[in-house]
């Protein structure tokens, strides 16, 4: 049967757009479909962790992300209209965390993040079709056919569900999402304008009584907006109207209702932690919130979603080009599901005030050491080991990340070993010499391709 595209991506959130970019730069014919008529509004996930910033640099959007955002402010705690203390939101870098250009999360409202990703996708020749709601999928041995509420069907070799925590595709596939509601109370989130409120601080208003609740106002970098987050009393129906938001601010802060001059967007949610039973069904893959749902407390959900896309993109590209066997796609779930499960534990612990935002939330230490793609042949491996993220090092004045950037494998020969680095920046194979490298390449299906050796890459001697 004729294929309309190689890959159909359902959902134009950060995961879907990042995957579209990664595939487009590899020459893969992919189509992103989105049921909404536009990109989703609202600040939602606003924090980009250091590892995601590295991914964005490779995808070609970092400069725009840096220009659009800024660092997080320090928290200022209020009580009875008085400032009573500061609160550091993130722990500083620890020993052993060196090797990264970025040390703290970078704040960019999600709506702006998505705009930047969409612009990059368009620049690379990619497409997003809006107003295309998937009703059902049909699979066979050759591909996937998607049927929509409006418009004709689309036939693809593979499909990726990146359509959020309530994923219609996941439900259609019959994949269970198991987890727990972390808080019985609903929460309200909104983007508001409050002229005159000091943007130096992330304003924190703890509960002032048994009938009150927590409220925070975070200045959104790159805008004149604040993100409002408030916990609502149990059994309360959120009032998402502008007047409802104004009344909530007035009830829990020293601000008058009219201080909120505009409510640009509002929504409600119940914090939940859940994980899909599997990340693949035949030729359909789950990515992002369709595969795992986090409490927003740890700033992990969006970042884990983008890194799902970064893991899956190079594997789809290699298989579709014929350079790797289809078995390579099995390693997507093998690698990403354990990571998602681990990160969910971190998010939940932070939500329950059992952990701090620090080294574990920066996501630099996440690894694939137990993956079948990771092979360590040294007797006494020092960091990085096979399966680790390769650090952002400068050798003889040359930044190695500049050598690693791009969609290919890269062979690095350094004084402490030989490293075959995957397209997503993780070490696939490591050895004291190149002995055994050929066998690894044959095992993982790289015999038909050559790792990139950009000028000088294999000659560095720190």
UniProtKB/TrEMBL annotation:
Supply the alphabetized keyword list.
FAD, Flavoprotein
Q: Where is the FAD-binding domain?
A: 4-344
* Skewed-composition ranges (Basic and acidic residues): 367-379
On the tree of life, the source organism's domain of life is Bacteria
What cofactor requirement does the entry state?
A: FAD
What is this protein identified as? 2-polyprenyl-6-methoxyphenol hydroxylase-like FAD-dependent oxidoreductase
Which region ranges are annotated with the description Disordered?
366-391
Known NCBIfam families for this protein? PRK06184.1
By its UniProt entry, which Pfam families does this protein fall under?
A: FAD_binding_3 (PF01494)
């Amino acid at each position: 049967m004729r294929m309309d595209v190689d890959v159909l991506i359902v959902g134009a959130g950060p995961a879907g757009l990042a995957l579209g970019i990664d595939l487009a730069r590899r020459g893969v014919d992919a189509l992103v479909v989105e049921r909404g008529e536009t990109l989703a509004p609202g600040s939602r996930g606003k924090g980009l962790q250091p590892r995601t910033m590295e991914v964005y640099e490779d995808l070609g959007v970092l400069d725009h992300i840096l220009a659009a955002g800024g660092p997080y402010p320090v928290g200022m705690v209020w009580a009875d209209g008085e400032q009573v203390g500061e609160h550091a939101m993130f722990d500083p870098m620890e020993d052993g965390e060196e090797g990264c250009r970025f040390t703290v999360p970078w704040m960019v409202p999600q709506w702006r993040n998505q705009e930047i990703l969409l612009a990059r996708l368009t620049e690379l020749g990619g497409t997003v079709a809006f107003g295309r709601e998937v009703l059902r999928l049909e699979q066979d041995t050759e591909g996937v056919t998607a049927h929509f509420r409006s418009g004709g069907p689309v036939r693809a070799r593979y499909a990726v569900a990146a359509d959020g925590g309530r994923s219609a595709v996941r439900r259609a596939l019959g994949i269970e999402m198991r987890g727990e509601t972390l808080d019985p109370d609903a929460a309200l989130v909104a983007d508001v304008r409050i002229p005159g409120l000091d943007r130096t601080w992330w304003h924190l208003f703890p509960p002032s009584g048994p009938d009150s609740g927590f409220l925070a106002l975070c200045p959104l970098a790159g805008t004149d907006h604040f993100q409002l987050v408030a916990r609502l009393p149990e059994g309360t129906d959120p009032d998402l109207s502008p007047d409802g938001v104004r009344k909530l601010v007035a009830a829990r802060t020293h601000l008058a209702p009219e201080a909120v001059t505009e409510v640009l967007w509002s929504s409600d949610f119940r914090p939940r932690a859940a994980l899909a039973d599997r990340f693949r069904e035949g030729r359909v893959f789950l990515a992002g919130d369709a595969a795992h749902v986090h409490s927003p407390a740890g700033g992990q959900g969006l970042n884990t979603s983008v890194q799902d896309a970064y893991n899956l993109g190079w594997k789809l590209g290699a298989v579709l080009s014929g350079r790797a066997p289809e078995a390579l796609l099995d390693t997507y779930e093998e690698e990403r599901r354990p990571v998602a499960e681990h990160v969910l534990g971190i998010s939940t612990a932070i939500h329950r005030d059992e952990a701090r935002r620090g080294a574990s939330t920066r996501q630099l230490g996440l690894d694939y050491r137990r993956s079948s793609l990771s092979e360590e042949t040294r007797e006494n491996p020092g960091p990085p080991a096979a399966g680790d993220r390769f650090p952002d090092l400068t050798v003889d004045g040359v930044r190695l990340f500049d050598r690693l950037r791009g969609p290919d494998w890269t062979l690095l020969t350094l004084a402490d070993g030989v490293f075959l680095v995957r397209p997503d920046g993780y070490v696939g194979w490591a050895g004291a010499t190149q002995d055994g490298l050929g066998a690894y390449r044959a095992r993982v299906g790289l015999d038909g391709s050559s790792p990139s050796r950009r000028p000088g890459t294999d000659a560095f001697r720190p």
